[in-house]
Amino acid sequence: MIWRIASFAVAAGFVGLWQLIADLKLISPVFLPGPDRAWTALMRGFATGDLTGKLIGTLEHMAYGWLAASVAGIALGALIGSSRLMRIYIAPSLEFLRPLPVSAIIPVAIAMLGLTQGMALFVIAFGAIWPIMLATIHGFAAVEPRLYEVARALQMSRPAIVFKIALPSALPDILAGMRLSLTVALILSVVCEVLAGLDGLGHWVLLSARAFRSADLFAGVILLGATGYVTSIAMSLAERRLLAWQSTR
Amino acid sequence: MTLLARLDEAKVARRQQPLITFNGATLRLGGKTIIENLDLAVRPGEFLCIVGASGCGKTTALRLAAGLYRPSGGAVTFDGQPMLEPRREVAIVFQDYGKALLPWRTAAGNISLALEACGIPVRERPGRIAELLRKVGLPGHAEKYPAEMSGGMQQRLQIARCLAQEPTTLLMDEPFGALDAMTRQGLQDEVLSLTAASNTTVVFVTHDLDEAIYLGDRVIGLLPHPGRIGIELDVNLSRPRDQLATREHPEFLRLRRQLFDFIKATEH
After folding, report:
1. What is the pLDDT of residues A220-242, one digit of tens each?
2. Alpha helix positions (H), chain B
3. What would the pLDDT profile of A13-65 be if each residue is shown by its tens digit?
4. What kind and span of H or E run contains A85?
5. Fewer CB near the last or first residue (10 Å), C or N of chain B?
């Protein structure tokens, strides 16, 4: 509890420092608005509904891309992770693709799909799939072999083995991967919006910067930060609920 | 002879037929012969103990009987059929209970796994689970996760899950090896009464010679490299067995001496 209060105090200190720098005009107000002006811009944005629309746009990009990455990543990861042969054959190719900067495939995606929502979905999903898929592969490969023998002794069917043994066993790894991907999805949503002019906070930030509306710019940035923070907390809550059994260890 | 009498005779003959047989069973793994030419017959309802120095293939023999391994030569049969895959009427209790239980399921959930595999309808499961938990002395622990239970409780839970399969045969691989002496004795007596009540056939692997004699109708000692039978002892001690009286019985001490001498000889 004390630590929580302390951490809030530190955050408040930073905001105060920001206000001080803005008030002293150490940096021109054209580039750096104070927290007061940023807050006013944020409230105005919500009142007119401009910012709300952009926020929803970004949340949609992020959610669709992340969900697509999760479904594909878990399915592929399960397939590769549950077979030693698949791991041996496919792992090297994955190691080649994984460190590839996603920004490098954006031009390819734009060339193939145009400046469309489909392009954004592809890029976000492509970037966000790696942490999930690699975590799932690891999770499936690390299932206690004894549990597979228990399943054999019970003559469990193949789907039953996947859903009752392998998947729950790999779940902590999968959720950790999904948490990492959440950040990747947010970053790529903004990048796609900036590059393709798609409706969203990325686009808002870009236009505000070009028009020297620094208060609006900062309002957008604050909202992006808040989005990352809130989704991460939601993910933690989901993890704690799904992995309640781990807290008993 | 009437038809009925003939049927009865056939039934008796069937009952006396061995339940599990090893006919010259050989197992090679990775170029090493683990078990060679093993001949063994387990009678229905019998409590057979297998002992031997470490590396003599006693666990391997049990895995062959379970259908977890297929013999490289010879045959292993169950009820007259070749044992090529595990079957539900044969349950296995593993030594490492911590690894054999699902940590994300409660005690009730772990037992449910076996009931689900056996196709028991959902509404019958809670009753069966409560009954099984009571049988192994874990009533009131249904909602506990394995990590919240002691080693002895976890092994009881694994036994309950095996009993949920309603097996005719229980294969136990050093089930009490990792438990303290007191817990161990309690569980020995519980396994004896549980299996006697249901007339379950048991093959029990252990490295504890006293335990083998205390539990078994028959004790088999394996010789190592490769595993084969070195000694076979019939245990003619009355049942129910008693932790003090049985262990002090002259016959118990005689068998113990014989078995210790055998094991000592194999270790050189």
Report:
1. 999 999 999 999 999 999 999 99
2. 3-16, 58-66, 97-100, 107-117, 125-135, 151-164, 181-198, 209-215, 245-248, 250-266
3. 999 999 998 888 888 888 888 888 999 999 998 999 889 999 999 999 999 99
4. helix A84-97
5. C
Residues in CB range of B80: below 8 A, 6 or more apart: B17
Q: How far apart are CA B131 and CA B164, in angstroms?
A: 10
Residue numbers of B between 126 and 145 with CB closer than 8 Å to A: 145
Q: Is B123 on the interface with A (CB under 8 A)?
A: no
- A51-244 folds as MetI-like fold (1.10.3720)
- Looking up tokens 């136990």 gives B172
**Burial class (CB within 10 angstroms; exposed 0-12, middle 13-18, buried 19+) of B121:** exposed
What residues does each domain of chain A span? Answer: 51-244
| Residue in A149, A155, A160 closest to B68 by CB | A149
Reading the block at residue B77, the tokens are: 């049969």
Are B92 and A155 inside 8 Å of each other by CB?
no
Q: Tell whether B86 is within 8 A of chain A (Cβ).
A: yes
Task: Determine which of A93-102, A131-140, B193-202 has the lowest per-residue pLDDT on average.
Answer: A93-102
Probe site for chain A from B85, B101, B102, B172 (most A CB atoms < 10 A): B102
Nearest CA to CA, how far is A70 from chain B (Å)?
22
